[in-house]
């Protein structure tokens, strides 16, 4: 029997894509900044316990770590902002000088001070030690005045239990901080005109999230750096504005969803003029600070990332003639777009392209990968499952979207008539979206004979404002309906086994997983990674950014408080009759504590539902430590094999389910 004709049940195939490979090779790539011919980016390194390192690539191709490496007797430095609980914009660079927010622990608290550093030097603090009471983010250099402009969150003077936000300027040569503007619940995206005489920024107030509605403000800046004549130029509680950006000539551009789609506009005098109108998203939900989807690469040309039907593409826009052309690249997930002269930089990934820092020469159109988050050996390419778009009818006469990944292995086929188990993946947010970049976790399962569906339920970004906001008031209903209907559609098409449907998710994606288990009776089992289970607990412990998110996705609180009970899976555990559960619980998680998870397990076990918990040391919504990643993946696969009677091609430690499962017939 040749390799190509080997027959084995779905879920039992032997794969070279191992948990050890994924854990040891994968790092996260984040923020990108351009300084002349040099480009800088963040690397989140599992091998260094999730430290955020700043890396510089100089014009000769040399890579340099900007922050000193941790070592015995040396302080650790990690560039990571905690502003609004989401962070972003944690460093800025100009003429080789880097200013960053330090996240490493100093004594009893996480630092969060601003530091300046030149390569090879010891970082110098710019702000005093407040015990972590001051947080900074969205850093922008103002070298004309020798300072950095940023968002500051002040935890010393709480307002209604929440920290105060402001835009401040911090002197690079001293510790003086100047408040530029304050009084709003949130600020973001400060940006200075090329001559430094005008500044634009975004502001919004509760209960809005920035993708619901925010305002774009512009002010004059005098020689001392003081703001004058601030004026509102766009945005409202029903219009979301994203990424204000100045052109080289000093014209203000921005993205707005005033026509249902996040499109590009320009401020002309006191009028807002459309620059490019298309049924596509040229912006994104501003979950973090410092996000960027477009950049000027010449006085009249902009490189844009845009999302059509859940998939990102790149385009080049002539802002004078209004001409727009798509750029052919292998990247279907694009973020952190930055511009150099006739050059674009971004973080891009695709179905066969790991997330990478990419340089795109606009004259040749050829992309150059500067750093990939993981290595893709050529011999593994035949094992990759290529995603297929899935559009399907759902409740309320709606249509929802997903990406379907078929089981893929060059050396195996399944017995005739057998249908594969289906893994239903639920992204978080809930205002986020499923990515089409190479995801080793998905490939880990598809190469073993699982099918995967990654659902962009109603509420996801990438399909316009109306689709995005349709989840409001319906969280825990529409997202659950759409995930269930995606699975049932694949069952109907003969692409999944109706008796082997599995759901997995983390954070708010895990909430949808638990809701599927508690409110729909279609799942064989489920995996919950630090999932939201109790909405009252979520509302009580939410960071400032999401403190009033429940007002939007469920209804105004406390008037709609009953909905918190009605749609909390932890309150309805008695509905789960037969579906075993694996809980992957991060010890650092503040939203779903280990105590809450243990209480859910106690109730489920009392009802005869087998459960197990795997504690990990990493961050709440996905292990960032090598050992945790390996442990979590292998435990999940072992769990599915125990529940569904799969005969694995590898030997894995069994998950300690209680009560024990009855003996399963093996496939």
Report on the structure:
This protein is α+β, with helices and mostly antiparallel strands and 667 residues long. It is built from 10 helices and 40 strands. The chain has an 8-stranded mixed beta sheet, sandwiched between helices. The chain has a 4-stranded antiparallel beta sheet with strand order 2-3-4-5, with no helix packed on it. Helix 1 runs antiparallel to helix 10 and helix 4 crosses helix 5. The chain starts with 5 loop residues before the first strand and ends in a 23-residue tail after the last helix. The relative contact order is 0.10. The mean pLDDT is 92. InterPro entries: 6-blade_b-propeller_TolB-like, AB_hydrolase_fold, Peptidase_S9_cat, Xaa-Pro_dipeptidyl-ppase/CocE. Pfam families: Peptidase_S9 (PF00326). It comes from Archangium lansingense. Residues 438-645 form the Peptidase S9 prolyl oligopeptidase catalytic domain. This is Prolyl oligopeptidase family serine peptidase.
Short description:
By secondary structure, this protein is of the alpha+beta class.
Largest sheet: 8 strands, mixed
Shape: globular
Share in helix = 10-25%
Number of strands: 40
Distance linking N and C termini = 20 Å
Mean pLDDT: 92
Write a concise keyword list for the protein shown above.
10 helices, eight-stranded mixed beta sheet, alpha+beta
Helix-strand blueprint:
Elements: E1 6-7, H1 19-25, E2 28-35, E3 38-45, E4 51-57, E5 63-65, E6 91-94, E7 97-101, E8 105-106, E9 109-110, E10 114-117, E11 124-125, E12 134-142, E13 147-159, E14 162-171, E15 177-182, E16 186-192, E17 198-204, E18 215-221, E19 227-235, E20 241-246, E21 252-256, E22 263-268, E23 271-276, E24 294-296, E25 301-308, E26 311-318, E27 323-327, E28 333-340, E29 343-350, E30 353-361, E31 367-372, E32 388-393, E33 399-405, E34 412-413, E35 422-426, H2 440-446, E36 451-456, H3 465-469, H4 478-492, E37 501-506, H5 507-519, E38 525-529, H6 535-541, H7 549-553, H8 561-566, E39 581-586, H9 594-606, E40 611-616, H10 626-644
Parallel strand pairs: 1-34, 35-36, 35-37, 37-38, 38-39, 39-40
Antiparallel strand pairs: 2-3, 3-4, 4-5, 6-7, 7-10, 8-9, 10-11, 12-13, 13-14, 14-15, 16-17, 17-18, 18-19, 20-21, 21-22, 22-23, 24-25, 25-26, 26-27, 28-29, 29-30, 30-31, 32-33, 33-36
Helix pairs in contact: 1-10, 4-5
């Amino acid at each position: 029997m040749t390799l190509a004709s080997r027959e084995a049940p779905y879920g039992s195939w032997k794969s070279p894509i191992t948990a050890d490979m994924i854990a040891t090779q994968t790092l996260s790539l984040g923020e990108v900044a351009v300084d002349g011919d040099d480009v800088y980016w963040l690397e989140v390194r599992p091998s260094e316990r999730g430290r955020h390192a700043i890396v510089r690539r100089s014009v000769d191709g040399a890579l340099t770590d900007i922050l000193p490496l941790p070592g015995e007797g040396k302080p650790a430095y990690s560039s990571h902002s905690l502003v609004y609980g989401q962070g972003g914009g944690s460093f800025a660079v100009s003429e080789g000088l880097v200013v960053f927010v330090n996240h490493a622990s100093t004594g009893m608290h996480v630092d969060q001070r601003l530091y300046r550093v030149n390569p090879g030097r010891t970082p110098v603090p710019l702000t005093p030690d407040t015990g972590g009471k001051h947080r900074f983010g969205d850093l922008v250099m103002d070298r004309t005045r020798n300072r950095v402009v940023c968002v500051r969150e002040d935890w010393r003077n709480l307002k209604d239990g929440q920290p105060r936000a402001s835009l401040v300027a911090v002197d690079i040569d001293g510790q003086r901080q100047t408040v530029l503007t304050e009084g709003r619940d949130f600020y973001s995206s400060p940006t200075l005109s090329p001559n430094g005489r005008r500044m634009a920024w975004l502001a919004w107030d509760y209960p809005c999230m920035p993708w619901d509605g925010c305002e774009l403000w512009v002010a004059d800046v005098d020689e001392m750096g003081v703001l004058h004549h601030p004026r509102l130029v766009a945005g409202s509680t029903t219009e979301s504005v994203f990424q204000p950006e100045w052109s080289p000539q000093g014209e203000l551009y921005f993205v707005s969803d005033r026509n249902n789609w996040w499109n590009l506009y320009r401020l002309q005098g006191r009028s807002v003029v459309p620059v490019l109108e298309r049924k596509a998203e040229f912006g994104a939900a501003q979950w973090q600070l410092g996000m960027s989807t477009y950049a000027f690469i010449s006085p009249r040309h902009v490189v844009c990332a845009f999302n059509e039907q859940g998939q990102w593409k790149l385009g080049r826009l002539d802002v004078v003639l209004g001409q727009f052309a798509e750029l052919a690249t292998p990247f279907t997930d694009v973020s952190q777009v930055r511009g150099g002269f006739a050059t674009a930089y971004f973080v891009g990934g695709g179905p066969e392209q790991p997330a990478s820092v990419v340089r795109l020469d606009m004259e040749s159109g050829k992309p150059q990968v500067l750093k990939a988050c993981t290595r893709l050996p050529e011999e593994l390419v035949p094992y990759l499952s290529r995603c297929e778009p899935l559009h399907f009818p759902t409740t309320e006469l709606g249509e929802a979207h997903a990406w379907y990944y078929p089981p893929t292995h060059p050396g195996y086929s399944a017995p005739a008539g057998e249908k594969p188990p289906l893994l239903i993946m639920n992204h978080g947010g809930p205002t986020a979206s499923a990515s089409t970049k190479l995801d080793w976790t998905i490939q880990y399962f598809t190469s073993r004979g699982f099918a995967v569906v990654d659902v962009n339920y109603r509420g996801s970004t990438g399909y316009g404002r109306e689709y995005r906001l349709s989840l409001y008031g319906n969280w825990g209903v529409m997202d659950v309906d759409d995930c269930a209907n995606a699975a049932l559609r694949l069952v109907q098409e003969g692409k999944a086994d109706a008796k082997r449907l599995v759901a997995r998710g983390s954070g708010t994606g895990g909430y949808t997983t638990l809701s599927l288990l508690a409110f729909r009776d279609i799942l064989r089992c489920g995996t919950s990674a630090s999932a939201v289970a109790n909405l009252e607990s979520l509302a009580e412990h939410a960071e400032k950014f999401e403190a009033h998110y429940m007002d939007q996705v469920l209804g105004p609180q406390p008037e709609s408080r009953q909905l918190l009970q009605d749609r909390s899976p932890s309150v309805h555990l008695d509905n789960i009759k037969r579906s075993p559960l694996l809980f992957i619980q991060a010890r650092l998680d503040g939203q779903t504590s280990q105590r809450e998870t243990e209480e859910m397990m106690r109730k489920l076990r009392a009802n005869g539902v087998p459960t197990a918990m795997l504690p990990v040391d990493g961050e709440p919504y996905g292990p960032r430590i090598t050992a945790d990643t390996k442990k979590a993946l292998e435990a999940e696969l072992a769990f599915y094999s125990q529940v569904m009677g799969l005969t694995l091609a590898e030997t894995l430690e069994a998950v300690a389910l209680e009560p024990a499962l009855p003996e399963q017939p093996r496939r």
